[in-house]
């Protein structure tokens, strides 16, 4: 057997402190997982089951790269997020066992074409064009659990050109990491290389060409993204 055209390269993210790369299989994202962010998006925070959307694996951008201002939007937003990296797959994972499936954690930035997302939401349509576009998932180096443990609390912050825009604590997540993994695995079998972006705090806002966006999470370092000219 041969492919009719070359297979795409494997999408991968860095592993902290090494030259290794971690292959990315899929990217799942949790919507509105901080109460204050849910309110700023016009929704009431609650304990209904969390909902998920996805980004393609090749949307990954490494820290330090420039991201061009994307097409078809006039409201391009940042979203600071804790990223969970699955190392052991499974289906119907219990909350008690969930953390045993985690390989590590990273800092992420869920870049969003907010105007397209909200227009789709208001019409009951999928969010893909607002969330799953090219180079929309900035993912920092992954820190193995063996080195950082399982961060259940700690500052998560985002600055634009040195000005703080998001400032919260991981303990404020509505749905904690074990719950997220367990609920997601009931519907979709998880596998090594799956990433889960766990939601963003309040304070989301726009980026423009020339902006420098820095996201930091206590114990996991920071990622830096410069916004380039519109494509």
UniProtKB/TrEMBL annotation:
It comes from the Bacteria. Coiled coil: none annotated. GO terms for molecular function: hydrolase activity. Residues 27-227 form the Fumarylacetoacetase-like C-terminal domain. InterPro entries: Fumarylacetoacetase-like_C (IPR011234), Fumarylacetoacetase_C_sf (IPR036663). Keywords: Hydrolase, Metal-binding. This is Fumarylacetoacetate hydrolase family protein.
